[in-house]
Amino acid sequence: MTRPRHLLSQCRLATMTDGAYGLIEDGAVLIAEGRIAWAGARADAPAADTLTKLEGRLVTPALIDCHTHLVHGGHRAAEFEQRLNGASYAEIARAGGGIISTVSATRAASLDALVASALPRLDALIAEGVGTIEIKSGYGLDRETELTMLRAARRLGALRPATILTTFLGAHAVPPEYAGRADAYIDEVCLPTLRAAHAEGLVDAVDGFCEGIAFSPDQIARVFALAAELGLPVKLHAEQLSDLGGAVLAARCGALSADHLEYLGPDGVAAMARAGTIAVILPGAFYTLRETQAPPVAALRQAQVPMAVATDLNPGSSPLGSLLLAMNMACTLFRLTPAEALQGTTANAARALGLQDRGRIAAGLRADLAVWDVQTPAELAYRIGSNPLNRLYLGGSEC
27, 143, 196, 356: least CB-packed within 10 angstroms? Predict the structure, then answer.
């Protein structure tokens, strides 16, 4: 059955089609069969079956959170206290905390429990106008729990109208039972589990953590080689705590994105620029860990490396459940402009996930649209602790 052609009218459109806001001051958007059939000046709007007058409100693409660890067991509030008492993230990790403490809680949780605990976090993002969310595994570090996490993410996608993309992050940390034997873990657990997850249709992309407390570039390269064999795109946690050349590796492997990047050097910037790899900026972890070295935003900007912004929502280093707040943090902590922050949660975030059908307002794209009670796009990054969402359309349907 054909769905009615619906026109959103009397609105300001931030189309995000020109590298900035792409503003149309008195605009309209025609939705047909879940897609944007037309967008432009209201005076030129085509006929429609139904009409919604938005009374001057701002319309943007629905936001995209392109880096989260939304599915996990437990929390790490105690480590928050430890850090405030002087312990570093690396020290906590080496003492059995950090990722490993969440691994224990996640292994102990059932599929139903993981879904139930994740739903409020997912709903909070959707309530802020987020229509697409990436969810990583990486807190199982054994075959069955990694698969359970990915199954939980797929179930979340069936329970809510938002698009959920899954990322296999088996190379997130070395579990206690493989302490000192990272290569054996890659061979015996990570790679076979990736094959199993792919065979079950649970994986949209592959990620890894390239860091001194995690895996070396050579070890990550082996994981990426299997991803290439399976036809899966890759991305990488790179240069968060030190510069091991992860971004260069990611670019060499044609990665969709390299994420964190606080210690990214000139070679990494140049490699990402050549490869078209998106820089995913994660201010929540920088803020939570009280880091002092920011990503080289000016160098990325000069090299024309597109920047995305995400929450990095996780129980330890970034318990940040607001993409709007992440936008504000990216501006205040890293000096992104409000236009760059909105590009980073729409058009560039879509590119960081390999999606061509969203993140902008243009004919033919998916009708994922957020309507905001604001006058200017800059207000989305400017306000702190405010949610001005008026309504959200996903696939053309109002949520």
Answer: 356
Are 111 and 102 in contact by the 8 Å Cβ rule? The answer is no
> What is the rounded CA–CA span in Å between residue 276 and residue 254?
8
Dihedral over Cα of 352, 355, 356, 360: its sign: negative
Condensed to tens digits (0 to 9), the pLDDT of residues 343-378 reads 999 999 999 999 999 999 999 999 999 999 999 999
- Residue pair 342/328 in contact (Cβ under 8 Å)? The answer is no
Q: Coil, strand, or helix at residue 53?
A: strand
Query: 90: left (phi > 0), else alpha (psi -120 to 50), else beta?
Result: alpha
CB-CB contact of 346 with 310 (8 Å) = no
Could you tell me which residues come within 8 angstroms of residue 347 by beta carbon, excluding any fewer than 6 positions away? 16, 17, 61, 359, 360
Residue 38's contacts (CB-CB under 8 Å, 6 or more residues apart) are 29, 30, 45, 46, 363
Q: Is the pLDDT of residue 201 over 80?
A: yes
| Over residues 139-156, mean pLDDT | 98
Distance in angstroms (rounded) separating the CA atoms of residues 309 and 326: 7
| Those residues with Cβ within 8 angstroms of residue 91's Cβ, 6 or more apart along the chain or in another chain | none
Q: Output the CA torsion sign for 152, 158, 162, 163.
A: positive
Tens of pLDDT, residue by residue over 243-268, are 999 999 999 999 999 999 999 999 99
Nearest to 142 by CA among 172, 112, 97, 119: 172
Q: How far apart are CA 154 and CA 203, in angstroms?
A: 9
pLDDT reported for residue 1: 67
Could you tell me the CA-to-CA distances from 21 to 184, 253, 304 in Å, in that order? 49, 31, 17
Whether the Cβ atoms of residue 150 and residue 70 lie closer than 8 Å to each other: no
Task: Record the pTM.
Answer: 0.97
More confident residue, 275 or 18: 275
Query: How many helical (H) and strand (E) elements, i.e. helices and strands, does the chain have?
Result: 16, 16
Full DSSP string of 235-303? EEEESSSS--SHHHHHHHTT-SEEEE-TT--HHHHHHHHHHT-EEEE-HHHHHHTT------HHHHHHT
CB 384 within 8 A of CB 328: yes
